[in-house]
Write a structure and sequence with these properties.
The complex is a heterodimer of chains A (196) and B (264). By secondary structure, chain A is mostly beta strands. In chain A, 7% of the residues lie in helices and 32% in strands. Chain B has a six-stranded antiparallel sheet. In chain B, strands 9-8-7-10-11 form a five-stranded parallel sheet, with helices on both faces. Residues 1-17 of chain B have low confidence and may be disordered. Classes of the chains: A mainly beta (196), B alpha/beta (264).
Amino acid sequence: MSFITRGFSGRSRDRDDRLPPGQTLVSDFPVLSAGPTPEVETEDWEFTIRTESGVHRWNWDEFMALKIDDVDTDIHCVTHWSKLGTRWRGVSLDTLFENVETEQDYVMAHSYGGYTTNVPLDELLDGKSWVAFEFDGEPLDPEHGGPARLLVPHLYFWKSAKWVRGLVMMDQDEPGFWEQNGYHIHGDPWKEERYW
Amino acid sequence: MSDATTSQVMALGAALESVPRSGWHGATVAAVHRETPNASRLELDVDGWPGNAAGQHLDVRLTAPDGYTATRSYSIASSGSSTRVVLAVDKLPDGEVSPYLVDEVRAGDMLEVHGPLGAFFVWAPAGQTGDHRPVQLIAGGSGVVPLFAMAQAHADADDSTPFRLLYSVRTPDDVYFSDELRGLADTSAPLRLDLVYTRRTPEGWPTAAGRITREALEAAVIPAADRPRVYVCGSTGFVELVADWLVGLGHDPRSIRTERYGGT
């Protein structure tokens, strides 16, 4: 179902083919958050991966000693904005999972402040995601998820959990916070998997 | 990782399981009128609209003659089971969709909407939720739209929950739902309204125009000791500032729900 809206011509016909359907390019960096921005100091920060066999743990200094990647990627928010060619630095999930043995296929990301989002493990590995702590050459602002956020750029950006503090492995996929509140369980921007 | 915070947050969201599923709907513009010098109020008759909770939003999709489409999200100013849906749209200086909706659209025009969306930034009467905690609404500019829906729903339900709105706005001409808000202050379930003018005040206003301060916020919101549920909506800068102050004033972060508008 689609029909022409009288009097609407729109602005741009030079649609960038890097832009998924229903998205608009922005130059600023809008914020989507359900509550206040948590204050997290790097000296208190900790990142964990919990599996069926135990917990892997990194403090900030240990985390910074890991292999750090430069990431140049496009990001797409479910609220219809995209940014192209954003620059990040962070630790690949491949690096974090190097010594993690697990039979469980699903991940719940947990954040400082209590929010959660779910992602299948195979969508986080093979160069698909990072825990990022720098944006555009600067430490990541708290309102954008600093000190560190998950970066899963091939999915809508709510999957890139701000203020991330850990991943919990799960046997089955379960909806996280935004997914329980109306957003799609998977969230592929190229398939417009926005809402239930 | 056992996480009490997470489970509590989730329980809040899950409390609104009755919110209808979203989908695409054809909509006809039933009425348009100028809300402020920079904004219009649109009443839409939405085909098959399942109703919506107070505070939800929808996506509007416009299609040009050559098939080009543009989609944006807007908060809904109305709630309940009606298929008549009210929006109030602020015109953004470099916008693509908002200038059309504010200046060009007229009664009889057709567009598409997808919704209702969002199950977290919502309020329902105590009769449905069993939650009698007082409610503090805090709006910056056009961020008042979903909060107005909540205040109207509160009055419609004759709900006895204390309701208070702190509304930061540039000038008296920029107040959305001006008559309706004053009307809500006179109902049997009154809304307590506090206005802050950032650029120009009405004549004889007791305080000078200026951005809200932490002291003014503290004086105009339900104290943390009363454990209010707080909804904040406005620009990212406004919401960040206000939410940080609320936490500093002792409000439980889990009781503060925010919605930010931004982008184009």
